[in-house]
Amino acid sequence: MPYKAPVRDYQFLFNDVFKIEQYSNLKGFEEASPDLIAAILEEGARFTEEVVAPLNGPGDKEGCVLHPDHTVTAPKGYKEAYQQMVEAGWPALGGDPKYGGQGLPHVVSTAYSEMLTGASSAFAMYPGLTDGAVAALTAGGTDELRDLYLPKLISGEWSGTMNLTEPHCGTDLGLLRSKAVPDADGTYKITGQKIWISAGEHDFTSNICHLVLARIEGGPAGVKGISLFLVPKFIPDVDGNTGERNSLQCAGLEHKMGIHGNSTCVMVYEDAKGWLLGNAHEGLKIMFYMMNNARLGVGLQGLAIGHASHVAAVEFAKDRLQGRALTGPKSPDKPADSILVHPDVRRMLLESRALLEGGRAFLTWVSLQADLAKGSEDEATREKASDYMGLLTPVIKAFLTEKGLKVTQDSMQVHGGSGFTEHFPASQYMRDIRITLIYEGTNGVQALDLVGRKLPSKGGRSVMTFFGEIDAYVAEHEAGKVPAFVKGLKETKAKLMDGTMWLMQNGMGNPDAAAAGSLDYLHIFGLTSLAYMWAMMAEQAQAAIDAGSTDPYYATKLKVGRVFLDRILPEADAHLQRMKAGAEDLFALEDEEF
Fold first, then answer.
1. Which amino acids are annotated catalytic?
2. Residue 558: C-alpha distances to residues 79, 87, 444, 477, 565 (Å)
3. DSSP secondary structure letters along 96-115
4. Given a cut of 90, is residue 31 above it in pLDDT?
């Protein structure tokens, strides 16, 4: 079943909903003409559909191989596809032109990234963390390090990884044991073991640049003593030629439930040469540039895999003949009707589509905030966009992966028994997407971050600005073209405000109560965000229809949006009730009663 990239949806979002042409005065947007963006979308779709997607199923079955010399080879065709991608300039799409990048807006590269990830999430992970390494190097590297490494990383000639987790510690990084010993030449000797390192070893690139958290010998205990180091597989000379092999290696590959085509490595460092990024003992500050980038990427991954599974389910439903419509045969010339005639099949497919299209709009809108935070000439605009990025990153990561899993689960259900076999792609999508709720901080951790750090940040400025923007939109459009969508937004935002006030009143006195309700609160936040997106999409779709457009896309968009209003937004009531239950019932059992 072929993968189909969501080109038309991105055209609608870029041109109709967010009208990104209005930002042509901003850095990066001046070259992003509608014609160029259209060409990028079309060519990105061609590359991902024709070159990458055919590797997804075979790559899952073949997996990666660790050789006795500690090298790793990926599935057949991966290396060649990666080289095609680099030669075509795709990794450099949003890179800084100073270092050879194309400098296009982040919102445009996000669209391509969704296509690449939907075509094969395991393949897309090889270049995926390189973007985060670029962000961390840009923030914490010296001029010499940036000049030496960034051109190679941005082009995709080299790749990057993120090394945080150790066998005995995951989220609690203060427990890490990897150490860094200062050397006479100003570098450090890095020793330690890291696990679950995506793309930690492969043969696609001439160098792999590991960003490693370690504690400088004698540094403070806990997270206050963590530093970040650049530790390349090969130590480059001043001209960027790869030279001496560094003392690090892949000691093993994880045997995983999914994403088999990506090499998830155990990395061992033994006095490996590393360069400090940023200041000593401030490694988490620099690493968060990479981690936040990765968290947005994981939200995108949840959306992209959900979309791919939905495409497969729709194709299956159209072809699968089983039973008759309850209102009479729809295909009397055939032995049975397609399963599309059955209400529950239609429910699953349409709820999935409503979540995917709303989620794609949300991801696009947040990506646009990243561009505004970086490129706007207006300080207030930059400040607001930066606030939104901080506030909404945990929502993007957790909500889009939770709903991506729901979409993938329903897509498997549409396949029936066929979905539980390896003859169809549904089972691979289910195995691949499950990790997205776990890595880069579990969704429960994202919810705690939202409630415990992001809401009170800067005196609540970010969340109150977001609420104010929604209130202003509702006031302006309540009597407009799509009142039902604005009403849905208004009512869901009121529930979100109710939940926010409950947290303010109960969270300080009982932190367990706030923590117990945090994931439900995040879901209400996500539903409100998608309601905002659907209101804007419905408004523009109706405007196009009123202007005389005969493109059926717009009428279809409104029909799918109606499913969102009727069948998905009501979930906010249940989430609000659950979060207000507090934590008393969760702590009623003693530990020994479990």
1. 440
2. 42, 40, 33, 16, 10
3. -GGGT-----HHHHHHHHHH
4. no
